[in-house]
Design a protein that fits this description.
About 55% of the residues lie in helices and about 15% in strands. The chain is of the alpha/beta class.
């Protein structure tokens, strides 16, 4: 089994009505990860998806609809960080000069054994301790 971790920004595009071309690409990726059971995410991703879909996109979703999206995503394998993971993210943040929240995403991907981290926010092709970042929109 190949593990692939999805950052919240990719998921948001799949449900953002104003997502344009990225919406279709994101939806295809999420469908593949769901169908193959290769998709992982984290509690942080679930939280970010809900907040972004209800408050930050041009055409926000109603809270009940965003809750349905998160409920569906919660069927994936969901990483739940420990205090040690938070400390590891702090170290990773300093080592790679990442924001703490991006370092938490990388830490989660590393902890689940992901080969690929799908993200628009991190540098495409960058490798963090064996996890390769891929931008699905490139």
């Amino acid at each position: 089994m190949s593990v692939e971790f999805s950052d919240s920004n990719v998921i948001v595009y799949a449900y953002d009505i104003a997502g344009g071309d990225r919406r279709g690409k994101a939806m295809e990726l999420l469908e593949r990860l769901s169908d193959s059971n290769d998709g992982d995410l984290s509690i942080q991703v679930l939280q970010e998806v809900y907040v972004t879909l209800t408050r930050k996109v041009a055409r926000p979703l109603a809270a009940p609809r965003a809750r349905e999206v998160v409920q569906d995503l919660a069927l994936w394998r969901v990483f739940r960080p420990s205090p040690d993971d938070v400390l590891a993210a702090m170290d990773l943040s300093a080592q790679w000069r990442l924001s703490f929240w991006d370092a938490m995403i990388v830490t989660a991907a590393r902890q689940v054994g992901a080969a690929i981290l799908w993200s628009e926010d991190l540098n495409d092709g960058q490798v963090y301790d064996g996890v390769v970042v891929r931008n699905p929109f490139r």
